[in-house]
């Protein structure tokens, strides 16, 4: 029996934002939170009762300890973090806008400890304790060593009989589309489930069209059996083998959209691991909607709250 349902790794940064939709140029204070795609997904899975392990490479500094402590407080195992006396924790700043002003993200993550990751630093026997590996294109974009580590992780996982999911998670501030396509395309043939939002498919692979058609094209051209295309105005579409799936978006009042895709991925993986992909898509829609209503990158919600949204609950006052 595997100890962990899901193992994942990547960079989690310190997130700083001016309160009350303020501007960085005039802010007198900044709110501090954490942000990282893989840890966001790990925490959301943990909230569903899943056993999850997240690891990274962190400096033995107050900020490094804060990252591990804050992720671990939600029930995610962090015992395999690689600690180092050098490097730094990456930081990102976000200015929250409201129409017509967009949100703006500014990275300060160069030379972070995790960017110096190399597959030879990793004890790959940790994967012996997992059922499923989840990785993203963000980690692959951080450095050549990180790309090799993602490649090695997928190979090691498949050798152990694990299933693997991959979220393209394209970030144009980290690498150009051509570099992302060249690096990621060979990896995806060994992936079981691919998450590729509409915008990522267009930017990286030059593919467009309706989301269901897009999912089938990605399945055919890249190789994964299961492809999920979130981010459409009419919901999430997916193809699993020769079966088509759709889950409509759930209406939500946006408080903080960062991390909603990661929460949605967690819900879908929950169903996937249960062998019930259709239910997974419904959980994904519910968890993405819930995350929109919560400040911060992480979905901090109870299983009961998540199940209530899946069942169609609406807002109101619960006494």
| Share of β-strand residues | 15-25%
- Portion in helices: 25-40%
CATH superfamily: Ribokinase
CATH topology: UDP-N-acetylmuramoyl-L-alanine:D-glutamate ligase
Q: Taking Cα atoms only, what radius of gyration do you get, to the nearest Å?
A: 19 Å
Identify the strand order in the major beta sheet: 4-1-9-10-11-12-13-14
Q: What is the CA-CA span between the terminal residues?
A: 41 Å
Largest sheet: 8 strands, mixed
Tell me the overall shape. globular
Please supply descriptive tags for the structure shown above:
single chain, alpha/beta, UDP-N-acetylmuramoyl-L-alanine:D-glutamate ligase, four-stranded mixed β-sheet, 36% helix
Task: Describe what this molecule looks like in 3D.
- With 319 residues, the chain is α/β, with parallel strands linked by helices.
- The protein has a single domain (5-310), classed as UDP-N-acetylmuramoyl-L-alanine:D-glutamate ligase.
- It is 36% helix and 22% strand.
- The protein has 10 helices and 14 strands.
- The chain has helices spanning 37-47, 62-72, 137-142, 144-159, 177-188, 198-205, 211-222, 260-273, 277-292, 303-310; strands at residues 4-9, 13-17, 31-35, 52-55, 57-59, 82-84, 91-95, 104-108, 130-136, 163-167, 193-195, 226-232, 235-240, 243-247.
- Helix 8 (260-273) packs antiparallel against helix 9 (277-292) and helix 9 crosses helix 10.
């Amino acid at each position: 029996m595997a100890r962990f349902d899901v193992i994942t790794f990547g960079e989690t940064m310190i997130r700083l934002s001016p309160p009350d939709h303020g501007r960085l140029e005039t802010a007198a204070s900044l709110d501090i939170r954490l942000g990282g795609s893989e840890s966001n997904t790990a925490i959301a899975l943990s909230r569903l009762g899943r056993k999850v392990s997240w690891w990274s490479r962190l400096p033995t500094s107050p900020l490094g300890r804060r990252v591990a402590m804050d992720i671990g407080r939600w029930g995610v195992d962090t015992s395999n973090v690689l600690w180092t006396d050098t490097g730094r924790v990456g930081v990102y700043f976000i200015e929250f806008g409201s129409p017509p002003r967009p949100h703006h993200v500014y990275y300060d993550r160069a030379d972070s400890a995790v960017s110096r990751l190399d597959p030879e630093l990793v004890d790959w026997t940790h994967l012996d304790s997992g059922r499923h590996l989840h990785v993203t294109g963000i980690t692959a974009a951080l450095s050549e060593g990180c790309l090799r580590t993602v490649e090695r992780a997928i190979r090691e996982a498949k050798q152990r009989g694990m299933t693997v999911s991959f979220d393209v998670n394209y970030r144009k501030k980290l690498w150009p589309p051509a570099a992302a396509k060249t690096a990621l395309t060979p990896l995806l043939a060994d992936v079981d489930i691919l998450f590729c939002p509409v915008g990522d498919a267009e930017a990286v692979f030059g593919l467009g069209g309706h989301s269901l058609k897009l999912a089938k094209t990605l399945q055919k051209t890249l190789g994964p059996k299961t492809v999920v295309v979130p981010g459409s105005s009419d919901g999430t579409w997916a193809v699993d083998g020769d079966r088509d799936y759709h889950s409509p978006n759930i209406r939500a009042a946006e408080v903080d959209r960062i991390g909603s895709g990661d929460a949605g991925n967690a819900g879908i993986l929950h169903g996937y691991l249960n062998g019930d992909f259709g239910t997974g898509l419904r959980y994904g829609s519910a968890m993405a909607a819930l995350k929109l209503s919560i400040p911060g990158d992480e979905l901090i919600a109870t299983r009961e709250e998540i199940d209530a949204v899946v069942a169609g609950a609406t807002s109101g006052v619960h006494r």
